[in-house]
Amino acid sequence: MKYMVLLCDGMADRPLKELGGATPMQKAYKPNMDCLAKTAEIGLVKTVADGLKPGSDVANLSVIGYDPVICYTGRSPLEAASIGVDLKPTDVALRCNLVTLSDDADYNKKTMVDYCAGDISTAEAKVLIEAVEREFGNEKYKFYAGVSYRHCLVVDNGTTELGDMTPPHDISDRVIGQYLSNHENSAELINLMKRSYDFLMEQPINKERIAKGLRPANSVWLWGEGKKPMLEKFVDKYGKTCGIVSAVDLIKGIGICAGMKIIDVEGATGYIDTNFEGKMQAAAEHYKNGCDVVYVHIEAPDECGHRGEIDNKVKSIELIDQKILGPMLRVLETYGDYRILIMPDHPTPIAIKTHCSDPVPYLLFDNAHKKNGVDCFCEKTAEQTGIYVDFGPSMMGKLLDL
To answer: What's the pTM value of the predicted model, to 2 decimals?
Structure first.
């Protein structure tokens, strides 16, 4: 038996007047998902427990089968694991975004123009983060380059008591002052963010980006603080080997901490221009190498939601269906019996451009035990079935029939 999780990050949404009252899931042409839905279990699942923020860290831990209430220690430590940072017990890691802020003279009065600095390339970002490390790095602070706009700061003998370090994708188009933590322990970090603006604006890469009409990566933005995580190995917890396919350091970091196998995919960007075919091939390679479970994570719907891109969010769902699910069904059929779980981790509604804690639709298909399903896999039909799972981490056991 082979098992697959197709995690469409942020795919769930709310009805949009621009789509005639439909959601992107309803609007998308996704013949493979909808065909499976006709004979699958369809329902809603609560992936974000009460009291937790609806981040991809918490929600994906939940779907992978770990209770974040017990094991979650922060987002950035998981990303640090992915880029090869071995945290000491006394280290605190923070996500270090490269963002685009407006040019207002007062830092507090600047606006969050773009949480991803115009989707800056990994190569450009690496140069900038290395420059930041030379300028601001010391025995206490160490900066590490990640992918695109997503990077890491490790603080030696740091604290996680920093007040509210707001994720930048939560405040698109807003003035940032009220979202800067005023906790005494965060003062030095906030000052570092402010100092980074003038420094980064003088970097040749940013001057070149401005000349080309691109958005400069003109500030670092620190958030997602946490300490080294301790996750039980997936194979010990579930008795199955698991492989991860993702462009995102966070997801790969969860996999590394849980002892899963990782395949890096060339051209995987985390956006709608990602290498969908390469991800599908990597998933097939995991099965070939003996994995029982493959977790394929696609970031594109989430990014489109954060950017308010309605058409691209619809297109991203269609590309997942066409370029990953369709070919993977043919691969799985060669192994005989198989089960597929398709779901988002959380909604990223276009209207608010950030995550929310609403329950998400799921599709659970077993090729040997078919059920009476629905004609369209979407938020509405999932609600109409009346099936509701109130504990997200139970979904992995549900997939594995444990």
So the answer is: 0.85
